[in-house]
């Protein structure tokens, strides 16, 4: 692990496809690497089918939890902000980790856009919106599609900006997973995702493959960061997080925990129309049902002060 | 340096809550050239500010500066600490989400949280609209000794303005 904690610019590729492991790895590296000014670390990773919500989002608003469970799609929450993304092996994650002072989100996106535009000239054209989203212009049907989601985490010592890139994702699973049935039942100050039409790069260039894209991105990143001290003996290093379970355990446990997935959700109310036309309103704070309006005595006893995520399916039956 | 004069005659409490002003005889320490509620702000290099709220109680308000709120962009969510928590200087005591970025705020001094700004729950954007007044983050109890020595550890208004000017000059230079 010490090899990976050496400072200097470098590229690290994770061999894990577990979302909790990869998020833990990202945070571990951010907190333990010997950051050097001007150096940039690029981490490349992919996850098996998962939903990743932003730090202050509400999982019930952002995703269809029953669909996730039925299709073995994992639910996770990341430490950075922003909206909800769907991940699978066709979606590449990129993290650029720097010192706090060297944080520059726009520059990272410009690097990605110019790299891909230069490599796939005439196939499609990407540009960056004001909201720091990367969109693909379809010149044939004159539509714009989002192909990345971007988010950042800033602390006193480090900053990371991570973003996804839709190469060849299962868009059907993506749409179904992100379609919550509870969006209108919930009132909250949690950060809400802004929904956009998405597409994959492979829809415009069928030969795009993960392996070739990694190579193109790595070489371009190295070229851009040549002047900084390169921290590795190689263009990129593979890391197998399985070998570092001990160091990552603390973060993996937190990321998997019901506490982090559900209880840190900002306070919200959940309203349902019960079968006899009563409107019952549940108030949830720190994952616990703290108040119920308009319920009968039995319902009150059943639900009051219980964990909302455990009672969720029962509540929906009302 | 702060200077103060001792008043031996009737003193007047400022109308903070639209109360009828009361006249009574006290001995009080008053900052020269300043009204009772108008204490100076002090700043950290990470752009948090601290301002005394009451001379007698060793309490300060803490928030982020105008420079910081501009750099962050629109704050959409604010996570504040629990009342009663004790922090050391430079501990993270609050987290803000703005334009997809989650950032920490750090304590300017050691202190115990005695109040958090409830308005921010519904309107986190107050931090942008009014970083020094309505957008304060927490109120904390701080040891007298720390307050006395405040100029040694934090920047006053003048020094802070120079500090951010230096920052801006740096960015222009690169």
From TrEMBL, chain A:
It holds the Pfam family LplA-B_cat. Pathway: Protein modification; protein lipoylation via exogenous pathway; protein N(6)-(lipoyl)lysine from lipoate: step 2/2. InterPro entries: aa-tRNA-synth_II/BPL/LPL, BPL_LPL_catalytic, LipoylTrfase_LipoateP_Ligase. One of its GO terms (molecular function) is lipoyltransferase activity. GO terms for biological process: protein lipoylation. SUPFAM superfamilies: Class II aaRS and biotin synthetases. Residues 36-229 form the BPL/LPL catalytic domain. GO terms for cellular component: mitochondrion. Belongs to the LplA family. This is BPL/LPL catalytic domain-containing protein. It comes from Didymodactylos carnosus. The lineage of its organism: Eukaryota, Metazoa, Spiralia, Gnathifera, Rotifera.
Automatic annotation (TrEMBL), chain B:
One of its GO terms (biological process) is glycine decarboxylation via glycine cleavage system. Its main location: mitochondrion. It comes from the Eukaryota. It is found in: Mitochondrion. Its cofactor is (R)-lipoate. The modification N6-lipoyllysine is found at residue 100. InterPro entries: Biotin_lipoyl (IPR000089), GCV_H (IPR002930), GCV_H/Fam206 (IPR033753), GCV_H_sub (IPR017453), Single_hybrid_motif (IPR011053). GO terms for cellular component: glycine cleavage complex; mitochondrion. This is Glycine cleavage system H protein.
């Amino acid at each position: 692990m010490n090899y990976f904690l050496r400072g200097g610019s470098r590229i690290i590729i994770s061999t894990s496809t577990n979302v909790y492991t990869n998020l833990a790895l990202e945070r571990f590296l951010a907190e333990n690497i010997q950051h050097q000014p001007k150096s940039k670390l690029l981490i490349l990773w992919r996850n098996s089918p998962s939903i990743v919500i932003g730090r202050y989002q509400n999982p019930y608003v952002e995703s269809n939890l029953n669909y996730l469970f039925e299709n073995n799609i994992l639910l996770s929450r990341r430490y950075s902000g922003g909206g909800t993304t769907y991940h699978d092996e066709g979606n590449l994650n990129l993290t650029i980790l720097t010192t706090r002072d060297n944080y520059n989100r726009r520059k990272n996106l410009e690097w990605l856009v110019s790299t891909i535009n230069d490599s796939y000239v005439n196939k499609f054209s990407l540009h960056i919106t004001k909201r720091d989203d990367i969109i693909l212009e379809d010149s044939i049907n004159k539509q714009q599609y989002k192909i990345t989601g971007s988010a950042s985490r800033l602390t006193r010592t480090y900053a990371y900006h991570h973003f996804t890139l839709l190469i060849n994702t299962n868009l059907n699973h993506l749409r179904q997973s992100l379609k919550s049935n509870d969006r209108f039942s919930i009132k909250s100050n949690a950060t809400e995702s802004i929904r956009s039409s998405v597409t994959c790069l492979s829809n415009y260039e069928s030969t795009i493959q993960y392996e070739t894209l990694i190579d193109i991105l790595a070489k371009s990143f190295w070229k851009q960061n040549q002047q900084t001290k390169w921290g590795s003996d190689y263009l990129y290093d593979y890391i197998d997080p399985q070998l570092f379970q001990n160091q990552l355990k603390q973060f993996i446990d937190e990321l998997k925990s019901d506490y982090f997935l559900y209880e840190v959700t900002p306070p919200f109310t959940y309203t349902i129309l019960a079968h006899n036309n009563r409107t019952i309103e549940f108030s949830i704070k720190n994952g616990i049902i703290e108040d119920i309006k308009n319920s009968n005595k039995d319902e009150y006893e059943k639900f009051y002060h219980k964990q909302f995520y455990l009672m969720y399916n029962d509540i929906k039956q009302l | 340096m702060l200077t103060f004069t001792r008043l031996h005659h009737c003193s007047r409490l400022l109308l903070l809550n639209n109360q009828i002003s009361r006249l009574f005889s006290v001995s009080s320490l008053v900052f020269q050239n300043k009204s009772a509620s108008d204490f100076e702000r002090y700043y950290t290099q990470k752009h948090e500010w601290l301002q005394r709220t009451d001379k007698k109680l060793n309490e300060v308000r803490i928030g982020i500066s105008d420079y910081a709120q501009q750099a962050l962009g629109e704050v959409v969510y604010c996570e504040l600490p629990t009342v009663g928590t004790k922090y050391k200087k430079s501990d993270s005591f609050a987290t803000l989400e703005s334009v997809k970025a989650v950032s920490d705020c750090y304590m300017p001094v050691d202190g115990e949280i005695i109040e958090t700004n409830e308005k921010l729950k519904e309107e986190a954007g107050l931090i942008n609209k009014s970083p020094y007044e309505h957008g304060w983050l927490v109120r904390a109890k701080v040891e007298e000794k720390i307050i006395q020595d405040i100029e040694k550890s934090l920047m006053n208004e003048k020094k802070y303005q120079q500090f951010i000017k230096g920052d801006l000059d740096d960015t222009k230079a690169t």
